[in-house]
Amino acid sequence: MPLMSPRPRRSSVFLAVFALLLAAMPALLASNVHAASATKAKTWNVMVGAESSSGAVQTMAYGPKKIWINAGDTVHWVANSMEPHTVSFIDDKHPAVEFSPMTTYMTAPTSKGSISKPGQFRSSGIMAPAPDALFPDAVTSYDLKFKKPGKYKYLCYVHGEAMKAVVVVRKAGTPYPHTQAEYNAMATKASNADIEHGLNLWSDALGAASSHHVFMGAADMRAQVNRFIPGNIVVKVGDSVTFDMARNVFPVPHTVTFGPPPANPFAPTGDPTNFQGAALSSGVILPAGFGPPPSTFTVKFTKAGTYSYVCLIHAGMGMVGQVVVQ
């Protein structure tokens, strides 16, 4: 007669099941907390722009670019770079055409602190870490409450199609796919990559520049370098220096301004064909294809000396230069 296998003891089965439940407990607890937290309205943080430690490289992105929230939640945007930006949910009456500081709807905040459906116009106005001469009413943060589900797309009026993002709003009580810490990590990773890209733009421009050919920054759809490249040059009396916007494939404006700021920063002043230290400014210059010509500014230096100059728009970010004429 064959021997029968002993039945497994019930205590052994119980212990095995208990061990499996114990192993799964952290995940079960996490999901329960996640679901419970989803029943309460939350505030989510999104960074607006980013910059290198020196401020030379400014990125054109929200961090993160996409966020999932629930109806009743609020998004809190924080200015994260010296370059001005906006958070703007646009409509047909307030289109994202070429930016102008004179266009009120692009620079001024809307009064309502909530939005009920995609297509409603809401805007932060100009956002920056601190007000400046060009935007004295700039704000450091912007809050908007989302009342109903939908896909809410927004952009920056200053940078247009280069800087877009979306808030996806689901029904209240829907479990959140990410935590704030995860969104922060996504934003940091993306901004670091964009800053590295900007540093490469700077390096490439420097390799193509010379003491007689200075690039006025460098920019594409990811980042912009607000520096004269190179910033300090040495030439001789009678030499000419051409300041060139050719390294910008995005319509970022710059000026080349020697001496005190002119009354109208947008208009050229002085005589660049015979510069001996008087007030001189290029006025606002845009890259070729984005504004009226020229996209360069050439200065002939006819007297020895050391001449400092700035970009009136980005001087606060460190966009300054010096020409030593021997």
From TrEMBL:
Cited Pfam families: Copper-bind
Domain Blue (type 1) copper: 56-169, 227-326
Keywords: Copper, Metal-binding, Signal
Signal peptide feature range: 1-35
UniProt superkingdom: Bacteria
Record keyword Repeat present: no
Gene3D superfamilies in UniProt: Cupredoxins - blue copper proteins
Name of the protein: Plastocyanin
Gene source species: Nocardioides cavernae
